[in-house]
Amino acid sequence: MSGNKNGAAANREGKQMMFLIRSAFWLVVLILLIPTDEAQQKQIYGTAQSAVADIRGFCDRNPKTCASSQYAFNVLVQKAQYGAQMITTLVEEQAGNFTADRPVANAMPSAGAAMPVPSAVPLEPTPWVQNGSQNTLNPEDLEADWSGPNV
Q1: Inter-residue contact 78 to 117 (CB < 8 Å)
Q2: Whole-angstrom Cα distance, residue 130 to residue 116?
Q3: Residue 41 CA: distances (Å) to CA of 37, 49, 54, 55
């Protein structure tokens, strides 16, 4: 039993040591990122400004990517709202069991109901283009496997 206590103490000390090492590492990284003089500060500020300008122009350069990202974000928001509605309904129904004097609206979707999908950006399937033959096997690959003398 005493060996188990020593192991637990060593494990705790090891975790504390790793915490100190990680803290020291991130402190050194932070110190290295702090500018030392005004010229370095101006350089970092200029780099940050150009990065923000580049990010602002992303949708101008890639309109399809932004449109599909907006569609995906809208779907994510709708799923979150749908899930929140389901959880709210479930909680209200459970609370209704405790307070019978208050009626609970049944906003739970039916079993076959599909979640509505936003129509902000229509998502078209990518056509599958078949260029040439799909037969990429070597003649050796087409030969039958050896199955042994007793088959």
Answers
A1: yes
A2: 33
A3: 6, 12, 20, 21
Report CA Rg, the chain.
31
DSSP E strand boundaries for the chain = none
Q: What are phi and psi of 84, to 5 degrees?
A: -65, -40
In 3D space, the residue among 127, 125, 121 whose CA is nearest the CA of residue 72 turns out to be: 121
Overall size of the chain counted in residues? 151
Q: What is the pTM of this model?
A: 0.33
For 60-109, the pLDDT digits (tens) are 888 888 888 888 999 999 999 999 999 999 888 888 766 655 554 555 55
